[in-house]
Amino acid sequence: MDHKRLEKNLCDNILEAQIKLGYDGRPMSLNYTAASLRHLTGAEDIETELNAFADEVSDRLGRLTFRSIRDGCCITVPPEGTAYVHENSDPNGFLSRFIETVRSHTTVENVIGVFREFSDEVEVREMDNEEFQYLVYFKNGVPDDYRYCLTDEEEIDGSHHITYHRFIAEDYEDLGF
Questions:
Q1: Strand order across the beta sheet in which 122-126 lies
Q2: What is the pTM of this model?
Q3: Which domains, and CATH codes, for the chain?
Q4: Each residue of 5-22: pLDDT tens digit?
Q5: How far lies 156's CA from each of 159, 160, 161, 164, in Å?
Q6: How far apart are CA 122 and CA 20, in angstroms?
């Protein structure tokens, strides 16, 4: 089975945390639902698949460990894995620019502008639900294939604060928005 998608997702989630919190050389634990792991691996037997995945990525991410959680699994990446992500990530890539813009208390238009800096293939949908206001993603999956759900919240002083949630396409579809 091909584990590239799971490895990319795991590394992307580590990178997201490192951008937000800084890199500190420590291990990192990430929780995944069983449904997400099935989507990312295409496998039904998650335990067997995760063990095969751990063997495949050990030269890059170190020896991963797993712990069952309610309806899923906690994956712990050792310090050498978080260092690998830190050392092999583009500090000027899309995710870095996106998070930098979101944390700057800007407008949703400026956040969407970051997507457009990285691609002409950007889908923006205004949503009418209580969870978020916009769905934004790259139609061709480049530079990433996540679905970004954005909410533009106005602060008391008139400034804006954008919040977001990022999903793989299948998880977004499972949510039924």
A1: 122-126, 134-138, 146-154, 160-168
A2: 0.93
A3: 4-87 (1.10.10), 94-175 (no CATH)
A4: 999 999 999 999 999 999
A5: 7, 9, 11, 20
A6: 24
